[in-house]
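As a warm-up, study this chain.
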Amino acid sequence: MRRASTSRPSRACERAIRGATSGGSGSRCRSRSRVARVRIGTSGWVYQHWRGRFYPEKLAAARWFEFYASRFDTVELNNSFYRQPSRKTFEGWRARSPVDFRFAVKLNRFVTHYKRLKVSAESIALSYDTMAGLGPKLAVVLAQLPPRMKFDAARLDGFLRAVARRRRRHALEPRDASWLTDEALSALRRRRVALCVIDTPRWPSRIAVTADFVYLRFHGPRGLYASNYSDGELRDWADRIRAWRDQDLDVFAYFNNDANAYAVFNALRLRELVG
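Now compare it with the structure written out below.
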């Protein structure tokens, strides 16, 4: 949410993004009257192997979302990466979720992988006009980049200018180390786009704040998507999250280690530790 014109950003938020200038697609720092919010969930909810581990054995799959939304206040939609849902589908998720529930939506791979962010206005409209079906429950748009895509300031700026009028928070998950340089992070700060902080040995990562919110993805500490976080590892992340919250930063954290429903139990435990 953007701040009211009569408010000033908190000093903690200004320090956190280290002098970023306004503009582009990111949201501005919030008014002091708002309290930073931590939301923790999973990357998707439709996993057959969660039946009996998370979902009750006899619960119909058509009711899984309601069950999930009764236990979490956010989810990251990943199916949109493979096939763009219709606006009607997004509207349905909005209607079936609690008032305070929020969605993060991963951009379709046509935008991020096939076109590598250099897309037409028509493609932007297709993605964003359908996502708009979530209304105010659309919290963040995630752009996950392909592993060999190098940092390109001009390409990034072109994409962010194209989506600027959408007034959405954006997070960027690069999988190439060139996006983790000071130059690249400065470019994200100028546009107030959050660097997606990932936890996995598979791809390079850096813990850095580049917007007025923090976006975390937990892919598994050892085996990709298939390993469990220890209590000690979760406690370390809980400490970081509390520190960000104290700096007036919203935090969105999603577990993508779906094997054995690790994601569910790690998310619940992290939420408990953050308090």
